[in-house]
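Here we describe the complex-level prediction in full. Unlike the single-chain runs in Section 2.1, the two entities below were treated as one system.
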Amino acid sequence: PPFTDFDMAYFNSYAHVGIHEEMIKDRVRTETYRAAIMRHQNFIAGKVVMDVGCGTGILSIFCAQAGAKRVYAVDASEIAVQANEVVRANNLSDVVIVLHGRVEDVQIEEGVDVIISEWMGYMLLYESMLGSVITARDRWLKPGGLILPSNATLYMAPVTHNDRYRESIDFWRNVYGIDMSAMLPLAKQCAFEEPSVETIAGENVLTWPHVVKHVDCYSVTIQELQSVTTRYRFKSMMRAPLHGFAFWFDVEFNGPAISQTNRQPSALMADNQAEDGSQRKKRTNPNEALVLSTAPEDPQTHWQQTLIYFYDPIDLEQDQVIEGSATLSQSRENARFMNIRLEYASGQRSFVKECVMR
Amino acid sequence: PPFTDFDMAYFNSYAHVGIHEEMIKDRVRTETYRAAIMRHQNFIAGKVVMDVGCGTGILSIFCAQAGAKRVYAVDASEIAVQANEVVRANNLSDVVIVLHGRVEDVQIEEGVDVIISEWMGYMLLYESMLGSVITARDRWLKPGGLILPSNATLYMAPVTHNDRYRESIDFWRNVYGIDMSAMLPLAKQCAFEEPSVETIAGENVLTWPHVVKHVDCYSVTIQELQSVTTRYRFKSMMRAPLHGFAFWFDVEFNGPAISQTNRQPSALMADNQAEDGSQRKKRTNPNEALVLSTAPEDPQTHWQQTLIYFYDPIDLEQDQVIEGSATLSQSRENARFMNIRLEYASGQRSFVKECVMR
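The structure predicted for the assembly as a whole is:
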């Protein structure tokens, strides 16, 4: 695909150190990735790895520590220059090869056994970076290769959030004794026009989540990510005002696709070469799925949850049904943006809310 | 002055409700303004007021509550439309006249007795909104009129802030066991290139502050704000690493300029017409200056403090002298931006740091 001004802006946003600091300091994220690498150490040792969107190179270095023969660390952002410095300073230049460019543009002369990438955006699909993982997979991944994470699931659920509504909206009803309700329409628009990345608690969620999209990283196509539509039907487990929907995701780090699980001898031989033995202790059950979750009931991550608020809440009775559809699609204007269209109906009333995540 | 694209961007930034919510919810700010209006109620009652940059109109309404005959509420941002709605909903349309436009462009047919404005930006002078207050003063303020706030003072002081340095810089020395010190130059640049608005504690301040600029709102000129230079000399009260300088300000709400203090009969007559009597109780000593302070040792405001960090700390001994100069000037490119040039010397070493607040 062509390199657009939007790509340029996107890659530039990753040139700033702060964003990498935030991601690395997200211990849930970084430690789960490290645990995943260590869990698949048998497979990774002696193999060729590609890290798609390597940032500062931390995952590539984890892979080198796990015994990878070679790691191609690819990033189109200027941060790749720093990644290269970090690799050099750690005497890993003979293992980790930093490539400063888009996955779509770089050249490598061999197939890879492992693709690792931390590609997930808000609402999973925002940023559209998964497309680059798919490109790398289709171009370089050998049969039987490993992709980490192996699969991802996006969820949605109806939420109640009185505190948020009170703080941003009801606030205007009495401002130091003055009735500023005239601000309400604009306040609702400003607060709720765009998706809001924030942390909610399990108690805000009105019922079990609905799966919006399941992604199998071994088989997903760029085509099927351009627009995702789901129909949902929720039955509220309690009586509460419905303020909108929350979206979150999890990803799993399973082994290679079922049809391709034959481990190769070199991997088996490398089984005990872990540099970081400490991770091994956590492997109480090596077959249990390793999950990185951004759900409200799980420890907080930098992804938090993404909320789409209605302009006005809907009062729900217990067991009342809310149904409709949600469509997430890449913006035509800028594929890094996401258009969201929510249809929802409850009782006799039906609504549509459209917004853009920029 | 001409209406530039930069003005447009500046006014647009105030069209969003969030910024007004933040300012109004800053109780130190809003309650001090209200207290100031109530303290000068004798003067305001029956008079003509202009509110420069009225936002949602809250200060104008406070002035109406204090008995103003007429309040011209001026704002160039689209928020003026909302201010007008709020005024109407409070049945104050016959007192508060909302003018949607720049102070430099609006027309009013009478002089004003009082100018009130919440014009202070970060580091006091950022945003350059004081120029509009000066324009209003020179165009409309009657002799003996009142300006609230009446004067403002910008301070600076050397600070130590190990936590901040450790968190953003030293962090890279050991990232999950990996030495990422190669990130340090970029991390320092990203963290400390620009002024940082953040809250520090009194303990971070190494000695008494230096007055960078005192502004008398009755006499200050636009000319003298274009560039402010000060020479400072600090003697550290403790042994500590010097990480940079903090800037903060306070403003006072004193009566009309000394030469013009003759209260007029109409004001005296209105002495007991306070709608909000509760404020009166705070007037234990009506001659004591009412101060809105953003100093580190005072309750936090949305202005916080503005920090200018060095790329590398300087180890100070107790009583060691740091001296140099600071220049704050309007950017030529965009008068809403501020160029900051710091010269500092300690022992045999001297340094220059230049940055821009955008």
